[in-house]
């Protein structure tokens, strides 16, 4: 896969063209064990086959992108995305499709660069509010503690297989060699008023039993153009376990936005 220097980092990306002059989706993956592979193996090919252009990349510290020891505030990830679009000469507004932390990045980017965002598809994700920061700090701290125990890897392999053990080792290395755990929850955070100011259409896809199970309407109730799809009997791993459903929702969403002539700011 090709690489480009974006915000000082050698950034690994994959681009698949769609129809000339058509819509463009940018995939944003989650933290820890994740990389652009999660979208490459699930959504990239079928979405491009529908005539929609696709761009996916490894976030800083993940996959084959540079892993600096520090620089993991949300604003750093936002700056990376903005310069990546510049370096690839992408001028049209894009559809940001974010899984977990990738969705949080999408909300933050849409707030700071609204003119570059056509719509958001948020998969098991939420904006970077104070509530998000508390939950993220707890998840990252608990994950780091779990991965610090050697018995954890034996349990993972016995329960889920050797592949999950390898992924956990990679996540432990990323967490242990960077400031992700301490920096990511610091944001910058968004107020409720700032979330309400996001003007692009947003499709939120949630598992009924995922991280937002306590209040499935919390995010979309703040968004002026938010729509919600809740998948029954599903936890946080929506992208992996229900990727065909997500694919259909995504393709339909992009086509609907195009038909409605969502303003290209």
Summarize the structure.
The protein is of the alpha/beta class and 265 residues long. The chain has helices at 37-40, 44-49, 74-87, 101-112, 130-147, 150-160, 162-176, 180-183, 192-196, 238-241, 243-260, and strands at 3-6, 9-16, 24-28, 53-57, 94-99, 117-123, 202-207, 226-231. It is built from 11 helices and 8 strands.
What's the layout of helices and strands?
Blueprint: E1 3-6, E2 9-16, E3 24-28, H1 37-40, H2 44-49, E4 53-57, H3 74-87, E5 94-99, H4 101-112, E6 117-123, H5 130-147, H6 150-160, H7 162-176, H8 180-183, H9 192-196, E7 202-207, E8 226-231, H10 238-241, H11 243-260
Parallel strand pairs: 3-4, 3-5, 5-6, 6-7, 7-8
Antiparallel strand pairs: 1-2, 2-4
